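User
New here, explain this?
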Amino acid sequence: MASVNKAILVGHVGKDPEIRETKSGDTVASFSLATNSGYGEKKTTDWHRVVFFGKTADVVKEYVNKGSQLYVEGRISNRSYDDKDGNKKYVTEINGYSMQMLGAKGETTAVSDGENIPF
């Protein structure tokens, strides 16, 4: 039987994206994305770590900053690593493969697999 691993998020970027390059020269962009649920006093905020690679990461580097509103599609990924003190840390993140920049002045742009698609 087939399975599905897909996350769809609409939220605001919490701080400017962190940009780095792999040894092969590909761009990696990571940032936190805040999503809200509820209303009034019962409003809650969840934070999601989002990572983009390649040409889409180049678009993030150029156009995304703190406060940007984004629509993101990606795969939920879990990984672990050892910190500098040798403690095992666990991370859940969204490996993004599609993004739309929302809230721009009269224009929304979609980015998927490195291609810009104006709406």
Observations:
- Strands lie at 7-13, 18-21, 27-37, 44-53, 69-82, 88-102, 109-112, 115-118.
- The helical segments are 54-63.
- Residues 7-37+44-118 form a domain with the OB fold (Dihydrolipoamide Acetyltransferase, E2P) fold (CATH 2.40.50.140).
